[in-house]
Specification:
Blueprint lengths: L2 H7 L4 H7 L4 H9 L6 H11 L3 H4 L11
Helix pairs in contact: 2-3
Amino acid sequence: MRLKQLRKERGISQLKLAMDLNMNQNSISRYETGVRQADYVTLIKFADYFQVSIDYLLERTDNPKFYK
């Protein structure tokens, strides 16, 4: 998942991302390292937050275009 890449590109800390999405920092860390898999609701939160498609977030495409 491109979560860490997107977060770093935007200069956002794990803590800020966690606070913005009403999560805890440990969860963000686990998603970034692949220890934990995000469910559908969480994937949608990440995609909406970074304004990218879920396919881009999951590295299924290199096109970050967000479709609504």
